[in-house]
Protein backbone atom coordinates (compact mmCIF):
# COMPACT_ATOMS: atom_id res chain seq x y z
CA UNK A 1 0.00 0.00 0.00
CA UNK A 2 1.19 3.53 -0.75
CA UNK A 3 1.95 5.60 2.30
CA UNK A 4 -1.05 7.99 2.70
CA UNK A 5 0.97 10.55 4.65
CA UNK A 6 3.64 10.72 1.96
CA UNK A 7 1.19 11.08 -0.89
CA UNK A 8 -0.85 13.73 0.93
CA UNK A 9 2.31 15.69 1.73
CA UNK A 10 3.42 15.50 -1.90
CA UNK A 11 0.00 16.48 -3.29
CA UNK A 12 -0.23 19.33 -0.78
CA UNK A 13 3.13 20.63 -1.97
CA UNK A 14 2.05 20.42 -5.61
CA UNK A 15 -1.13 22.33 -4.72
CA UNK A 16 1.04 25.13 -3.34
CA UNK A 17 3.37 25.07 -6.36
CA UNK A 18 0.72 25.26 -9.07
CA UNK A 19 -1.93 27.43 -7.40
CA UNK A 20 -0.02 29.95 -5.31
CA UNK A 21 3.28 30.00 -7.26
CA UNK A 22 5.37 31.31 -4.33
CA UNK A 23 8.93 32.50 -4.71
CA UNK A 24 10.90 29.64 -3.22
CA UNK A 25 14.02 30.22 -1.17
CA UNK A 26 17.01 29.64 -3.50
CA UNK A 27 18.98 28.41 -0.52
CA UNK A 28 16.91 25.20 -0.49
CA UNK A 29 18.94 22.14 -1.41
CA UNK A 30 18.37 21.26 -5.04
CA UNK A 31 19.23 17.59 -4.86
CA UNK A 32 21.85 15.56 -6.72
CA UNK A 33 21.28 15.36 -10.47
CA UNK A 34 19.98 11.89 -11.13
CA UNK A 35 21.47 11.67 -14.60
CA UNK A 36 25.01 11.75 -13.18
CA UNK A 37 24.48 8.22 -11.97
CA UNK A 38 23.69 7.03 -15.48
CA UNK A 39 26.73 8.78 -16.92
CA UNK A 40 29.20 7.36 -14.40
CA UNK A 41 32.46 5.93 -15.71
CA UNK A 42 32.12 2.36 -16.87
CA UNK A 43 34.04 -0.35 -15.08
CA UNK A 44 36.50 -2.39 -17.07
CA UNK A 45 35.06 -5.58 -18.51
CA UNK A 46 37.04 -8.82 -18.78
CA UNK A 47 35.84 -11.32 -21.37
CA UNK A 48 36.66 -14.92 -20.66
CA UNK A 49 37.49 -17.14 -23.61
CA UNK A 50 35.12 -20.05 -24.00
CA UNK A 51 37.14 -23.26 -23.77
CA UNK A 52 37.14 -25.55 -26.79
CA UNK A 53 37.19 -29.29 -26.74
CA UNK A 54 35.09 -32.32 -27.46
CA UNK A 55 31.43 -31.57 -27.03
CA UNK A 56 28.74 -34.18 -26.79
CA UNK A 57 27.02 -34.19 -30.25
CA UNK A 58 23.67 -34.70 -28.59
CA UNK A 59 24.01 -31.23 -27.07
CA UNK A 60 24.63 -29.44 -30.37
CA UNK A 61 20.92 -28.99 -30.97
CA UNK A 62 18.45 -29.14 -28.16
CA UNK A 63 14.89 -30.25 -28.74
CA UNK A 64 12.38 -27.45 -29.34
CA UNK A 65 10.04 -26.58 -26.50
CA UNK A 66 6.79 -24.85 -27.34
CA UNK A 67 6.59 -21.27 -26.09
CA UNK A 68 3.48 -21.26 -23.94
CA UNK A 69 3.97 -17.69 -22.84
CA UNK A 70 4.98 -16.25 -26.20
CA UNK A 71 3.55 -12.98 -27.45
CA UNK A 72 0.70 -12.76 -29.95
CA UNK A 73 2.95 -11.49 -32.76
CA UNK A 74 5.28 -14.50 -32.54
CA UNK A 75 2.31 -16.85 -32.40
CA UNK A 76 0.90 -15.33 -35.59
CA UNK A 77 4.24 -15.67 -37.38
CA UNK A 78 4.74 -19.19 -36.00
CA UNK A 79 8.17 -18.36 -34.65
CA UNK A 80 9.60 -19.14 -31.25
CA UNK A 81 9.27 -16.25 -28.82
CA UNK A 82 12.18 -15.77 -26.43
CA UNK A 83 9.66 -14.41 -23.86
CA UNK A 84 11.86 -11.49 -22.88
CA UNK A 85 10.07 -8.71 -21.07
CA UNK A 86 8.53 -6.29 -21.51
CA UNK A 87 9.11 -6.88 -25.27
CA UNK A 88 10.56 -9.99 -26.85
CA UNK A 89 13.51 -9.74 -29.24
CA UNK A 90 11.36 -10.09 -32.36
CA UNK A 91 8.97 -7.29 -31.33
CA UNK A 92 11.88 -5.12 -30.23
CA UNK A 93 13.57 -5.53 -33.61
CA UNK A 94 10.34 -4.80 -35.49
CA UNK A 95 9.37 -1.98 -33.07
CA UNK A 96 5.98 -3.59 -32.40
CA UNK A 97 3.80 -3.82 -29.32
CA UNK A 98 4.43 -7.08 -27.46
CA UNK A 99 1.11 -8.34 -26.12
CA UNK A 100 0.62 -11.36 -23.87
CA UNK A 101 -1.97 -12.73 -21.56
CA UNK A 102 -2.49 -10.70 -18.40
CA UNK A 103 -1.23 -13.34 -15.95
CA UNK A 104 1.99 -13.72 -17.94
CA UNK A 105 2.66 -9.99 -17.79
CA UNK A 106 2.12 -9.91 -14.06
CA UNK A 107 4.48 -12.83 -13.53
CA UNK A 108 7.26 -11.45 -15.72
CA UNK A 109 7.11 -8.05 -14.02
CA UNK A 110 7.11 -9.36 -10.46
CA UNK A 111 10.12 -7.96 -8.64
CA UNK A 112 12.58 -10.19 -6.86
CA UNK A 113 12.56 -9.99 -3.04
CA UNK A 114 16.06 -8.48 -2.95
CA UNK A 115 14.93 -5.79 -5.42
CA UNK A 116 12.08 -4.74 -3.18
CA UNK A 117 14.56 -4.32 -0.36
CA UNK A 118 16.37 -1.73 -2.48
CA UNK A 119 13.37 0.60 -2.67
CA UNK A 120 14.56 3.79 -0.98
CA UNK A 121 12.62 5.03 2.03
CA UNK A 122 10.37 8.00 1.24
CA UNK A 123 12.65 11.04 1.45
CA UNK A 124 11.79 14.24 3.25
CA UNK A 125 10.51 16.94 0.93
CA UNK A 126 13.44 19.07 -0.07
CA UNK A 127 15.95 16.27 0.55
CA UNK A 128 18.44 14.94 -1.93
CA UNK A 129 17.97 11.97 -4.24
CA UNK A 130 19.12 8.59 -2.95
CA UNK A 131 21.91 6.69 -4.66
CA UNK A 132 20.91 4.90 -7.85
CA UNK A 133 19.99 1.25 -7.43
CA UNK A 134 18.73 -1.65 -9.51
CA UNK A 135 15.10 -0.65 -9.02
CA UNK A 136 15.77 2.76 -10.59
CA UNK A 137 17.28 1.01 -13.58
CA UNK A 138 14.31 -1.34 -13.80
CA UNK A 139 11.82 1.54 -13.67
CA UNK A 140 13.68 3.54 -16.32
CA UNK A 141 13.83 0.48 -18.59
CA UNK A 142 10.16 -0.32 -18.01
CA UNK A 143 9.14 3.21 -18.95
CA UNK A 144 11.19 3.06 -22.15
CA UNK A 145 9.92 -0.34 -23.25
CA UNK A 146 6.36 -0.37 -21.92
CA UNK A 147 4.88 2.57 -20.00
CA UNK A 148 5.52 5.27 -22.58
CA UNK A 149 3.49 3.32 -25.14
CA UNK A 150 0.40 3.62 -22.88
CA UNK A 151 0.48 7.41 -22.37
CA UNK A 152 -1.16 10.24 -24.29
CA UNK A 153 1.12 12.44 -26.41
CA UNK A 154 2.91 9.22 -27.35
CA UNK A 155 5.28 10.81 -29.84
CA UNK A 156 6.89 12.89 -27.08
CA UNK A 157 7.97 10.31 -24.50
CA UNK A 158 10.83 8.76 -26.46
CA UNK A 159 12.43 12.20 -26.63
CA UNK A 160 11.57 12.84 -22.98
CA UNK A 161 13.87 9.99 -21.97
CA UNK A 162 16.75 12.01 -23.39
CA UNK A 163 15.59 15.24 -21.74
CA UNK A 164 15.44 13.45 -18.37
CA UNK A 165 19.23 13.03 -18.43
CA UNK A 166 19.44 16.81 -18.11
CA UNK A 167 16.40 17.61 -15.94
CA UNK A 168 16.16 15.64 -12.71
CA UNK A 169 12.51 16.51 -12.02
CA UNK A 170 11.54 14.88 -15.32
CA UNK A 171 13.66 11.82 -14.49
CA UNK A 172 11.91 11.46 -11.14
CA UNK A 173 8.49 11.89 -12.79
CA UNK A 174 9.34 9.15 -15.30
CA UNK A 175 10.35 6.79 -12.50
CA UNK A 176 7.17 7.68 -10.59
CA UNK A 177 4.78 6.88 -13.45
CA UNK A 178 6.74 3.74 -14.36
CA UNK A 179 6.47 2.51 -10.76
CA UNK A 180 2.74 3.29 -10.74
CA UNK A 181 2.31 1.30 -13.94
CA UNK A 182 4.10 -1.68 -12.38
CA UNK A 183 1.95 -1.31 -9.26
CA UNK A 184 -1.07 -1.72 -11.56
CA UNK A 185 0.44 -4.74 -13.32
CA UNK A 186 1.56 -6.35 -10.03
CA UNK A 187 -1.12 -5.50 -7.43
CA UNK A 188 0.28 -8.03 -4.97
CA UNK A 189 3.64 -6.26 -4.81
CA UNK A 190 3.32 -3.22 -2.49
CA UNK A 191 6.88 -2.09 -3.13
CA UNK A 192 6.03 -0.47 -6.44
CA UNK A 193 3.37 1.76 -4.88
CA UNK A 194 5.86 2.87 -2.25
CA UNK A 195 8.42 3.62 -4.97
CA UNK A 196 5.87 5.66 -6.95
CA UNK A 197 5.04 7.81 -3.91
CA UNK A 198 8.73 8.27 -3.12
CA UNK A 199 9.58 9.44 -6.64
CA UNK A 200 6.54 11.72 -6.70
CA UNK A 201 7.81 13.45 -3.56
CA UNK A 202 11.24 13.88 -5.12
CA UNK A 203 9.69 15.18 -8.36
CA UNK A 204 7.78 17.89 -6.53
CA UNK A 205 10.69 18.81 -4.32
CA UNK A 206 12.82 19.58 -7.39
CA UNK A 207 10.02 20.92 -9.61
CA UNK A 208 9.09 23.57 -7.05
CA UNK A 209 12.41 25.32 -7.81
CA UNK A 210 12.34 24.72 -11.56
CA UNK A 211 8.84 26.16 -12.03
CA UNK A 212 10.03 29.69 -11.23
CA UNK A 213 12.55 29.71 -14.06
CA UNK A 214 11.94 31.65 -17.23
CA UNK A 215 10.38 29.50 -19.93
CA UNK A 216 12.65 29.26 -22.97
CA UNK A 217 12.73 27.23 -26.18
CA UNK A 218 15.32 24.93 -24.59
CA UNK A 219 13.37 24.07 -21.42
CA UNK A 220 9.69 24.41 -22.40
CA UNK A 221 9.37 20.74 -23.36
CA UNK A 222 10.80 19.71 -20.00
CA UNK A 223 8.20 21.77 -18.11
CA UNK A 224 5.32 20.42 -20.17
CA UNK A 225 6.46 16.78 -20.06
CA UNK A 226 6.98 16.87 -16.29
CA UNK A 227 3.58 18.51 -15.73
CA UNK A 228 1.75 15.94 -17.88
CA UNK A 229 3.42 13.03 -16.06
CA UNK A 230 2.43 14.53 -12.70
CA UNK A 231 -1.14 14.74 -13.97
CA UNK A 232 -1.07 11.05 -14.93
CA UNK A 233 -0.08 10.35 -11.33
CA UNK A 234 -2.96 12.52 -10.09
CA UNK A 235 -5.38 10.39 -12.11
CA UNK A 236 -4.31 7.36 -10.07
CA UNK A 237 -4.74 9.26 -6.78
CA UNK A 238 -7.86 8.13 -4.85
CA UNK A 239 -6.74 8.67 -1.27
CA UNK A 240 -9.36 11.39 -0.86
CA UNK A 241 -11.87 8.52 -0.49
CA UNK A 242 -12.05 7.52 3.17
CA UNK A 243 -13.85 4.81 5.07
CA UNK A 244 -16.40 5.98 7.64
CA UNK A 245 -17.22 4.41 11.00
CA UNK A 246 -19.66 1.99 9.36
CA UNK A 247 -16.97 0.66 7.02
CA UNK A 248 -18.46 2.39 3.98
CA UNK A 249 -16.51 4.51 1.53
CA UNK A 250 -17.31 8.18 1.99
CA UNK A 251 -17.19 10.60 -0.95
CA UNK A 252 -15.76 14.05 -0.28
CA UNK A 253 -14.83 15.60 -3.61
CA UNK A 254 -13.55 18.73 -1.89
CA UNK A 255 -10.44 16.71 -0.99
CA UNK A 256 -9.84 15.62 -4.58
CA UNK A 257 -7.05 17.91 -5.81
CA UNK A 258 -7.15 16.91 -9.48
CA UNK A 259 -9.30 19.89 -10.52
CA UNK A 260 -7.50 22.50 -8.46
CA UNK A 261 -4.12 21.35 -9.74
CA UNK A 262 -5.44 21.23 -13.31
CA UNK A 263 -5.51 25.01 -13.16
CA UNK A 264 -1.76 24.99 -12.52
CA UNK A 265 -1.22 22.69 -15.49
CA UNK A 266 -3.20 25.06 -17.72
CA UNK A 267 -1.06 27.95 -16.46
CA UNK A 268 2.12 26.08 -17.38
CA UNK A 269 0.82 25.43 -20.89
CA UNK A 270 -0.18 29.09 -21.22
CA UNK A 271 3.29 30.21 -20.14
CA UNK A 272 4.75 27.78 -22.65
CA UNK A 273 2.76 29.17 -25.56
CA UNK A 274 4.92 32.20 -26.46
CA UNK A 275 8.11 30.10 -26.80
CA UNK A 276 6.71 26.84 -28.16
CA UNK A 277 7.24 27.81 -31.79
CA UNK A 278 10.78 29.11 -31.45
CA UNK A 279 12.40 25.67 -31.49
CA UNK A 280 9.70 24.36 -32.27
CA UNK A 281 8.39 22.31 -29.33
CA UNK A 282 8.01 18.53 -29.62
CA UNK A 283 4.45 18.93 -28.30
CA UNK A 284 3.30 21.06 -31.24
CA UNK A 285 2.22 18.14 -33.45
CA UNK A 286 0.01 16.73 -30.70
CA UNK A 287 -1.32 20.13 -29.66
CA UNK A 288 -2.30 21.02 -33.24
CA UNK A 289 -4.26 17.76 -33.51
CA UNK A 290 -7.89 18.03 -32.31
CA UNK A 291 -9.31 14.75 -30.95
CA UNK A 292 -12.68 16.43 -30.44
CA UNK A 293 -13.12 17.17 -34.14
CA UNK A 294 -12.10 13.63 -35.07
CA UNK A 295 -14.51 12.07 -32.57
CA UNK A 296 -17.46 14.33 -33.45
CA UNK A 297 -16.96 13.51 -37.12
CA UNK A 298 -16.73 9.76 -36.47
CA UNK A 299 -19.87 9.80 -34.30
CA UNK A 300 -21.69 11.98 -36.85
CA UNK A 301 -22.66 14.52 -34.22
CA UNK A 302 -25.47 16.70 -35.59
CA UNK A 303 -26.98 19.95 -34.35
CA UNK A 304 -30.17 18.06 -33.54
CA UNK A 305 -28.32 15.49 -31.40
CA UNK A 306 -26.40 18.18 -29.55
CA UNK A 307 -29.60 20.12 -28.93
CA UNK A 308 -31.20 16.95 -27.56
CA UNK A 309 -28.38 16.54 -25.03
CA UNK A 310 -28.54 20.21 -24.06
CA UNK A 311 -32.25 19.79 -23.40
CA UNK A 312 -31.73 16.52 -21.52
CA UNK A 313 -29.10 18.02 -19.20
CA UNK A 314 -30.56 21.53 -19.08
CA UNK A 315 -29.64 23.31 -15.86
CA UNK A 316 -33.05 25.01 -15.81
CA UNK A 317 -34.82 21.65 -15.36
CA UNK A 318 -35.02 19.70 -12.06
CA UNK A 319 -32.92 16.58 -11.56
CA UNK A 320 -34.76 13.48 -12.80
CA UNK A 321 -34.22 9.72 -12.48
CA UNK A 322 -34.12 9.23 -16.24
CA UNK A 323 -31.03 11.46 -16.43
CA UNK A 324 -29.00 8.61 -14.96
CA UNK A 325 -29.38 6.81 -18.30
CA UNK A 326 -27.94 8.37 -21.45
CA UNK A 327 -30.27 6.32 -23.61
CA UNK A 328 -33.17 8.44 -22.31
CA UNK A 329 -31.73 11.45 -24.11
CA UNK A 330 -32.81 9.93 -27.43
CA UNK A 331 -36.41 9.15 -26.45
CA UNK A 332 -37.55 12.64 -27.36
CA UNK A 333 -39.72 13.02 -24.25
CA UNK A 334 -37.51 15.45 -22.34
CA UNK A 335 -38.72 18.98 -21.79
CA UNK A 336 -37.31 21.36 -24.41
CA UNK A 337 -34.69 23.73 -23.14
CA UNK A 338 -36.05 27.27 -22.78
CA UNK A 339 -34.84 29.58 -25.54
CA UNK A 340 -34.02 32.23 -22.95
CA UNK A 341 -32.18 29.81 -20.73
CA UNK A 342 -30.22 32.57 -19.00
CA UNK A 343 -33.08 35.03 -18.81
CA UNK A 344 -33.69 36.67 -15.45
CA UNK A 345 -30.14 36.05 -14.21
CA UNK A 346 -28.80 39.24 -12.69
CA UNK A 347 -25.49 37.94 -11.41
CA UNK A 348 -22.67 37.96 -13.94
CA UNK A 349 -21.07 35.07 -12.05
CA UNK A 350 -24.23 33.00 -12.42
CA UNK A 351 -24.50 33.81 -16.11
CA UNK A 352 -20.92 32.64 -16.62
CA UNK A 353 -21.63 29.47 -14.65
CA UNK A 354 -24.67 28.60 -16.79
CA UNK A 355 -22.62 29.18 -19.93
CA UNK A 356 -19.92 26.89 -18.51
CA UNK A 357 -22.53 24.20 -17.78
CA UNK A 358 -23.71 24.30 -21.39
CA UNK A 359 -20.12 24.02 -22.61
CA UNK A 360 -19.51 21.02 -20.34
CA UNK A 361 -22.62 19.30 -21.73
CA UNK A 362 -21.27 19.84 -25.26
CA UNK A 363 -17.88 18.39 -24.32
CA UNK A 364 -19.44 15.45 -22.48
CA UNK A 365 -21.72 14.64 -25.43
CA UNK A 366 -18.64 13.85 -27.54
CA UNK A 367 -17.75 11.00 -25.15
CA UNK A 368 -21.29 9.79 -24.50
CA UNK A 369 -21.94 9.27 -28.21
CA UNK A 370 -19.46 6.37 -28.17
CA UNK A 371 -21.23 4.40 -25.42
CA UNK A 372 -22.65 1.00 -26.48
CA UNK A 373 -26.22 2.01 -25.57
CA UNK A 374 -25.95 4.92 -28.01
CA UNK A 375 -24.01 3.54 -30.98
CA UNK A 376 -24.06 -0.20 -30.28
CA UNK A 377 -21.07 -2.28 -29.10
CA UNK A 378 -20.00 -3.08 -32.65
CA UNK A 379 -19.35 0.61 -33.44
CA UNK A 380 -16.35 0.98 -31.12
CA UNK A 381 -15.02 -2.47 -32.00
CA UNK A 382 -14.94 -1.41 -35.64
CA UNK A 383 -13.23 1.88 -34.75
CA UNK A 384 -10.17 0.80 -32.76
CA UNK A 385 -8.17 3.48 -34.54
CA UNK A 386 -10.17 6.04 -32.57
CA UNK A 387 -8.86 4.83 -29.21
CA UNK A 388 -5.87 7.22 -29.09
CA UNK A 389 -8.22 10.16 -29.67
CA UNK A 390 -10.75 8.88 -27.12
CA UNK A 391 -8.00 8.36 -24.57
CA UNK A 392 -6.47 11.77 -24.97
CA UNK A 393 -9.89 13.48 -25.00
CA UNK A 394 -10.84 11.78 -21.72
CA UNK A 395 -7.45 12.55 -20.17
CA UNK A 396 -7.73 16.28 -20.94
CA UNK A 397 -11.48 16.53 -20.20
CA UNK A 398 -11.01 17.20 -16.48
CA UNK A 399 -8.38 19.82 -17.28
CA UNK A 400 -10.72 21.68 -19.63
CA UNK A 401 -13.61 21.77 -17.12
CA UNK A 402 -11.56 22.34 -13.95
CA UNK A 403 -13.06 25.77 -13.09
CA UNK A 404 -16.63 24.48 -13.55
CA UNK A 405 -15.87 21.35 -11.52
CA UNK A 406 -14.44 23.34 -8.60
CA UNK A 407 -17.59 25.46 -8.56
CA UNK A 408 -20.05 22.56 -8.54
CA UNK A 409 -18.02 20.72 -5.89
CA UNK A 410 -18.02 23.74 -3.60
CA UNK A 411 -21.79 24.06 -4.13
CA UNK A 412 -22.44 20.32 -3.90
CA UNK A 413 -24.50 20.94 -7.02
CA UNK A 414 -26.32 17.71 -8.03
CA UNK A 415 -26.63 18.76 -11.69
CA UNK A 416 -22.91 19.29 -11.86
CA UNK A 417 -22.26 15.99 -10.07
CA UNK A 418 -24.43 14.37 -12.75
CA UNK A 419 -21.88 15.53 -15.34
CA UNK A 420 -19.05 13.92 -13.38
CA UNK A 421 -21.05 10.71 -12.94
CA UNK A 422 -21.59 10.31 -16.68
CA UNK A 423 -17.97 11.19 -17.41
CA UNK A 424 -16.53 8.55 -15.07
CA UNK A 425 -19.06 6.01 -16.30
CA UNK A 426 -17.97 6.67 -19.91
CA UNK A 427 -14.31 6.37 -18.90
CA UNK A 428 -14.94 3.02 -17.20
CA UNK A 429 -16.73 1.63 -20.25
CA UNK A 430 -14.67 3.13 -23.08
CA UNK A 431 -11.17 3.11 -21.56
CA UNK A 432 -11.19 -0.38 -20.11
CA UNK A 433 -8.14 -1.58 -22.04
CA UNK A 434 -4.69 -2.11 -20.50
CA UNK A 435 -3.25 1.03 -22.13
CA UNK A 436 -5.62 3.15 -20.03
CA UNK A 437 -4.49 1.57 -16.74
CA UNK A 438 -4.07 5.02 -15.15
CA UNK A 439 -7.84 5.71 -15.40
CA UNK A 440 -9.27 2.42 -14.15
CA UNK A 441 -9.23 2.83 -10.38
CA UNK A 442 -10.58 6.39 -10.29
CA UNK A 443 -13.44 5.62 -12.70
CA UNK A 444 -14.33 2.33 -11.01
CA UNK A 445 -14.55 3.92 -7.56
CA UNK A 446 -16.18 7.27 -8.35
CA UNK A 447 -18.94 6.08 -10.68
CA UNK A 448 -20.95 4.13 -8.06
CA UNK A 449 -20.30 6.73 -5.33
CA UNK A 450 -21.60 9.56 -7.51
CA UNK A 451 -24.59 7.47 -8.55
CA UNK A 452 -25.40 6.79 -4.91
CA UNK A 453 -25.14 10.51 -4.12
CA UNK A 454 -27.53 11.35 -6.97
CA UNK A 455 -29.96 8.60 -5.97
CA UNK A 456 -30.08 9.97 -2.43
CA UNK A 457 -30.70 13.46 -3.78
CA UNK A 458 -33.57 12.22 -5.95
CA UNK A 459 -35.11 10.24 -3.06
CA UNK A 460 -35.05 13.29 -0.81
CA UNK A 461 -36.81 15.32 -3.51
CA UNK A 462 -39.81 12.94 -3.54
TrEMBL record:
**Protein name per its UniProtKB record:** Zn(2)-C6 fungal-type domain-containing protein
Entry annotated with the keyword Nucleus: yes
Keyword terms: Nucleus
UniProt GO MF annotations: DNA-binding transcription activator activity, RNA polymerase II-specific; zinc ion binding
Q: Which residues form the Zn(2)-C6 fungal-type domain?
A: 70-98
- Repeat: present as a keyword of the record? no
Q: Which InterPro entries match?
A: Sterol_Uptake_Regulator (IPR053157), Zn2-C6_fun-type_DNA-bd_sf (IPR036864), Zn2Cys6_DnaBD (IPR001138)
Which Pfam families does this entry report, sorted A to Z? Zn_clus
Native organism is Cudoniella acicularis
Superkingdom as given in the UniProt entry: Eukaryota
User: What taxonomic lineage is listed for the species of origin?
Assistant: Eukaryota, Fungi, Dikarya, Ascomycota, Pezizomycotina
What residue intervals traverse the membrane? none
